[in-house]
Amino acid sequence: MITLDVDAVKAFVTIADLQNFTRAAEALGTTQGAISVKLKRLEDQIGKKLIERTPRLVRLSAQGAVFLESARDFLAAHDRAITGLSSVRRRFTLGIATHVGGPEVPTVLARLSAHDPALTIEVRLNDSRDLLDAFERGEIDAAIIRREDDRRDGEVLAPEHFGWFATPDFVHRAGEPLRLAASSPSCGIRNITTRALDAAGIPWTEVFLGCGSFAVADAVAAGLAISVFSYRLAPPGTVEVSRRLGLPALPSSEIVLLSTLSDARSRAALRTLAAAFREHRPHHDSAPRKRTASMESTV
Description:
D-Maltodextrin-Binding Protein, domain 2; LysR family transcriptional regulator
């Protein structure tokens, strides 16, 4: 009778989900070599090749695809058994900056919840600055924010690049102030925008002041104004217009994960969170200039 090793099965499922040994190692808080050994041990136990690996591709074998669902059930049963030993549920308060969270957020949170069934996740959405203040007051356990000012702590999750976005038919008349849509005065994006325009000597006026990034995106998509967005979160139907309108270059930033949690279970949850976030980030984030040129060719 074959006795499955929980850690080996977890390594297999994580590799299958992330399709990458390095990211799987990050999620499990171990090394690539260690999860390779665990996978090999599992394959030897059941006598099947589960993962096919080439220098450019990691994918399930035919036998791995068949085993995957059973492996998930095995891990779920194990987690339920462990959770049943304790009636104490844990609460995890996570702040996500509104200008950072995109369509990947539900998937990231689902991954975090599946990692620890005894974990109750409370999510707060706000500007990076407000979340940073709440984090420093101890009101939230962790925060995914855009790096503010010269603060250098936190785990870097991804770079963030910005552009000037408007509808293709947006018109800026010479001699008139540039029409801006912006969020609250405390928003870091608004500060980046106004500092860049002031430094370039370009007059501007706020014609739409929204209460959040979604409201600003709606105003820009409607053609009312121009605004700054990260390339991955630009509103549908808009294009990057910095070259056409002669607007200044914008500084890049970083998305970071802040946390003071130190217990093993919380740190494991944070590793899962970071790995899931990186997995769902677009791979072209690092080349906005090339994307800008291609997008402006349609204007």
